[in-house]
Design a protein that fits this description.
Blueprint lengths: L1 H22 L8 E13 L2 E11 L11 E10 L7 E7 L2 E6 L1 E3 L4 E6 L8 E8 L2 E12 L8 H11 L1 H5 L9 E10 L2 E10 L4 E7 L5 E5 L1
Parallel strand pairs: 1-10
Antiparallel strand pairs: 1-2, 1-9, 2-3, 3-7, 4-5, 4-8, 6-7, 8-9, 10-11, 11-12, 12-13
């Protein structure tokens, strides 16, 4: 009798790690297809610069699966004169970057993107010149919009998961998460927010707006 009881107990103990593995929630950070973690903005006269740093999949496809990730720093210039062909020069992380901007006739901005590490500077000075007019030069200093109290990605995902656990769990079997996340830092009126998009493998996206400091869900849309 004692031998049978010991064998049954041993078998149960062997199964416990398997049960724990099946019930464990997946690490949602592994399923983030875009994370915009840095945001800069500045204005000089009638010229406004917005710059952002993101880690995102390439090619970009909202299909519920995470692809290969790249680091991208994007600069956009809203200019008083769109007839000019602008070039930009700036320093970040001790390295100097320069390039010609492309004009987006839909958004009416001049833009450029660069593969580079995340900048740690609290401000970045962007100097713009005209490739066809040597007399034109403009420097716009863009300040970081990310606040000290803004959550890092793991803490944000924990808060969002806690608030929408049923929706997240519906896409998970405890080991594999059948979806992808888009997380974008936002700034408005001196406050930080996060857009969090949850996309399933049918391409459906559930959108959430979260408080930047607490991760509390402020609004949703599907």
């Amino acid at each position: 009798m004692k031998l049978r009881l010991f064998a049954a107990t041993a078998a149960l103990l062997c199964l416990l790690p398997l049960a724990a593995a099946c019930s464990a929630a997946p690490d949602l950070a592994e399923y983030v297809s875009e994370y915009r973690s840095r945001l800069y903005s500045g204005t000089e006269g009638e010229y406004t610069v917005v710059a952002s740093f993101s880690e995102r999949e390439t090619p970009y496809c909202a299909d519920g699966n995470v692809g290969n990730m790249t680091q991208v720093f994007e600069v956009t210039l809203a200019a008083a004169d769109n007839t000019r062909t602008y070039a930009v020069q700036f320093c970040a992380g001790g390295k100097e970057y320069c390039a010609e901007l492309s004009f987006d006739s839909v958004r009416m901005v001049h833009s450029y993107s660069q593969s580079m590490p995340a900048p740690e500077e609290q401000s970045v000075a962007f100097t713009f010149t005209d490739t066809e007019d040597e007399t034109f030069s403009l420097t716009v200093t863009a300040q970081s919009a990310r606040l000290a109290e803004t959550l890092e990605l793991p803490a944000l995902l924990d808060a969002v998961y806690a608030a929408e656990r049923e929706r997240f769990d519906a896409l998970s079997d405890g080991r594999i998460f059948r979806g992808e996340l888009y997380v974008r830092l936002l700034a408005e009126d001196g406050e930080n927010y996060f857009y969090v998009g949850l996309t399933d493998r049918d391409g459906r996206t559930y959108s959430m707006l979260a408080d930047g400091a607490t991760g509390a869900i402020l609004a949703t849309h599907e």
